[in-house]
Design goal:
Bound molecules: magnesium ion
Helix content: 40-55%
Largest sheet: 9 strands, mixed
Shape: globular
Order of helices and strands: EEEHHHHHHHEHEHEHEHEHEHHEEEH
Distance between the termini: 39 Å
CATH topology of one domain: TIM Barrel
Structural class: alpha/beta
Strand content: 5-15%
Radius of gyration: 20 Å
């Protein structure tokens, strides 16, 4: 399969009109996708995208167009090499390396290549990955900068150890699904009545964990958290998410004030680049919860690459790894991050929501369960109930769980009429 074309699209949804997705750092996002269609000489097509929240989506699209010549005319036989071709180009590398707009653009192209490969094989991506043998998985990874924490041989041993039970775990996913939690109740722009109603609906729908946005005003956060706790009771886990709002000292003080309401985790307490800051917050909150329980520290949706995840794990700075399908260089780099998390015994609870992120990350978590960590303990995939109607193969949630996708590919394809209607700036939705 030789790549013959890379077509890019600037797709934006006017979500800021309803304050869907509002939080302390992102008050008015327009959820957007810099979207890619790869085509090959034998008639196959792969779709992928990276996620942005509006302005700048055109910059990602321009970066995709700039990278396209690196893959046109190349085959898709070796997806590890395909990914490294995009991230190791000596001139483009100056713009990162492996971070920022160029890395988001690489994610879109790499994700499209995985969609194409799995579609051509006739299986969903999670199944495709879960059928690779340990050596094939190790060969996908870009090992540069990782070997002080995890070597290819150690990864091979880890993957071999989880070979037994692959079939049973895949069958469990198809029967029961993968646990989810919902963020749909807790956007910062929602009033108390809407928050209470949505929290009750989440519990009624079978969720055992929900998440609230915090970090704009402490008095508001205490009132909203107390209200939510009173609605859902003591047994539902409530995570909170500050979206990088705080300095380290503020994070510790704010979470200490919220501790009586039993936060399950604090997500993005501070800058995603501040490894030592996360470690300090984690140490300070290790016994801050009711009864001396920990308030866990979570981050990842803005962690630029596998090297940053390596440091967060080495520094014992996180309890939860929140990988993102589109922030790092797509499926291939996420295989490395799953292996690192397994090596350190830290659960992966992917970031999702946005547009299409739920569709993509379900494949990564399901692969992790079948072939890497082999565990569902304290693992949940974020779920947000927005924009799924634009996808050909949308996620299916039942009783608080993601049901395993059965259609071939990466669940990444948007309907053609959505691509037309939400094209920025000329689609009907923007005129
Ligand atoms: Mg978040």
């Amino acid at each position: 399969m030789i790549v013959t074309s890379v077509d890019s699209f600037d797709i934006r949804f006017p979500t800021s009109r309803e304050l869907d997705g509002s939080d302390a750092m992102n008050p008015d996002p327009d959820y957007s996708a810099a979207y890619v269609v790869l085509r090959t000489d034998d008639g196959h097509e792969g779709h992928g995208f990276t996620f942005t929240i509006g302005r700048g989506n055109d910059v990602c699209r321009a970066a995709i167009d700039a990278l396209a010549p690196l893959v046109i005319g190349r085959d898709l036989d070796d997806l590890g090499e395909f990914g490294r071709r995009l991230t190791h180009d000596s001139q483009f590398r100056w713009l990162g390396p492996e971070k920022g707009v160029m890395h988001l653009a690489a994610a879109a192209i790499v994700n499209a290549a995985w969609d194409l490969t799995a579609t051509a094989t006739g299986v969903p991506v999670w199944r495709y990955l879960s059928a690779l043998d340990p050596q094939q998985l190790v060969d996908l990874v870009d090992w540069r900068y990782l070997t002080d924490a995890l070597t290819p041989d150690e990864a091979l041993d880890l993957l071999k150890a989880s070979l037994p039970g692959r079939t049973e775990r895949a069958a469990h996913l198809e029967r029961v699904g993968y646990p989810a939690y919902t963020t749909s109740a807790g956007w910062l722009g929602y009033d108390d009545a809407k928050l209470a109603r949505l929290a009750q609906e989440a519990v009624d729908a079978g969720y055992t964990q929900i998440k609230l946005k915090v970090g704009a005003d402490l008095a508001d956060d205490i009132r909203r958290f107390a209200l939510t706790r009173s609605v859902v009771g003591p047994d539902v886990r409530i995570a909170v998410d500050a979206n990088q709002r705080w300095d380290v000292g503020d994070a510790i003080a704010w979470m200490t004030a919220l501790a009586p309401y039993d936060p399950w985790w604090i997500e993005e307490p501070t800058s995603p680049d501040d490894v030592l800051g996360h470690a300090a917050v984690r140490r300070a909150l290790a016994t801050a919860g009711p009864g001396g329980r920990p308030i866990r520290v979570a981050t990842g949706e803005h962690v630029a690459n596998r090297v940053m995840f390596k440091q967060l794990l080495q520094a014992e700075a996180v309890d939860v790894v929140q990988l993102d399908a589109c922030r790092v260089a797509g499926v291939t780099e996420n295989v490395a991050i799953l292996l690192l998390a397994a090596r350190f015994g830290v659960p992966v609870c992917p970031h999702a929501g946005g547009v299409g992120l739920c569709e993509l990350v379900q494949h990564l978590s399901m692969f992790d369960y079948v072939a890497v960590s082999g565990s569902l303990d304290d693992r949940v995939i974020e779920y947000v109930d927005h924009l799924h109607e634009h996808f050909v193969d949308p996620v299916v949630i039942s009783r608080g769980a993601y049901l395993a996708p059965r259609a071939p590919g990466f669940s990444a394809r948007m309907h053609a009429d959505s691509l037309a209607r939400y094209a920025f700036p000329d689609g009907a939705a923007w005129r």
